[in-house]
């Protein structure tokens, strides 16, 4: 089904990818960011997600939300995360509910579960174990998603995104990479899956070396097409005892 989708954080890396890729699936997009977005065929709202008046305007007529806006850094201070990721995410969920948008796709992160040792990991659904205040802020967003699904019947997917990039930038990302094409396929699946209630879904491509299970995503209709292995030549092997390899969140556990 074609949705009228608000994309928050649409000027960012993932936002630009979705603004290019989602319309081919029939959706109408409205883009929201605190920085201006030019040269786009889509409607744009410039403003801050912590401002309820901005969100009320941005949510008018919207049936689904893809919430990307926030600070994406594992080294960000609690004070910055408190405003953008915690207050901002609450305001986006609340504005979506008030506007009657029934579906929300939330950009969580592998860092919400980053302290899980990979050797002990239940591949599909490891427990919350943040590796940073950033990871804690993402765990909060996941909890909000579950709450809005249970309390208000919204359909919510939390994407535990690995490493989004045009190509894998590091040895670790041969396991954690999600390609731009697969990101569009994943969000498209979450926007249209008829049986979605609440799900935490790994945001990862079909990497030969992936650590994370695709079964939850596949049950929603996500069929990744890319594999980081195509870029593996020349990358050094990771030492299994190196935190970069041994923990879901990689080196962030020792920062
Ligand atoms: N890129 C990755 O590999 C990755 C991995 C895991 C999770 N994520 C999550 O995905 C989301 C998008 O990531 P990205 O890589 O595109 O980040 P990005 O920094 O490129 O984009 C984020 C966008 O959000 C906007 N923004 C920030 N605070 C805002 C506010 N208060 N109001 C309105 N707009 C605001 C910024 O202007 C920016 O355009 C983030 O929430 C990030 O935590 C990304």
Protein architecture, described:
This protein is α/β, with parallel strands linked by helices. It has one domain (4-254): Rossmann fold, CATH 3.40.50. 33% of the residues lie in helices and 17% in strands. It has helices at 13-21, 52-59, 78-99, 133-152, 173-176, 180-192, 215-219, 243-246; strands spanning 4-8, 28-33, 43-46, 64-67, 103-109, 155-161, 163-164, 177-178, 198-203. Helix 1 (13-21) crosses helix 6 and helix 2 crosses helix 3 (78-99). The radius of gyration is 17 Å and the shape is globular. The model has no long low-confidence stretch (mean pLDDT 95). Bound molecules: nicotinamide-adenine-dinucleotide. Nicotinamide-adenine-dinucleotide (NAD) binds next to helix 1, helix 3, strand 5 and strand 7. GO terms for molecular function: oxidoreductase activity. Belongs to the NAD(P)-dependent epimerase/dehydratase family. Keywords: NAD, Oxidoreductase. It comes from Sphaerisporangium album. This is NAD(P)-dependent oxidoreductase.
Question: Helix and strand layout, with pairings?
Answer:
Blueprint: E1 4-8, H1 13-21, E2 28-33, E3 43-46, H2 52-59, E4 64-67, H3 78-99, E5 103-109, H4 133-152, E6 155-161, E7 163-164, H5 173-176, E8 177-178, H6 180-192, E9 198-203, H7 215-219, H8 243-246
Parallel strand pairs: 1-2, 1-4, 2-3, 4-5, 5-6, 6-9, 7-8
Helix pairs in contact: 1-6, 2-3, 3-4
Bound molecules: nicotinamide-adenine-dinucleotide.
Overall structural domain count: 1
Instruction: Please name the CATH architecture.
Output: 3-Layer(aba) Sandwich
What are the low-pLDDT stretches, counting only 5+ consecutive residues below 50? Answer: none
Helix content: 25-40%
H/E element string?
EHEEHEHEHEEHEHEHH
CATH topology: Rossmann fold
The CATH C-level name is Alpha Beta
Q: For the record, give the distance between the C-alpha atoms at the N and C termini, rounded to a whole number.
A: 44 Å
Number of helices: 8
Largest sheet: 7 strands, parallel
Which ligands accompany this protein? Answer: nicotinamide-adenine-dinucleotide
Strand tally: 9
Instruction: Label the structural class.
Output: alpha/beta
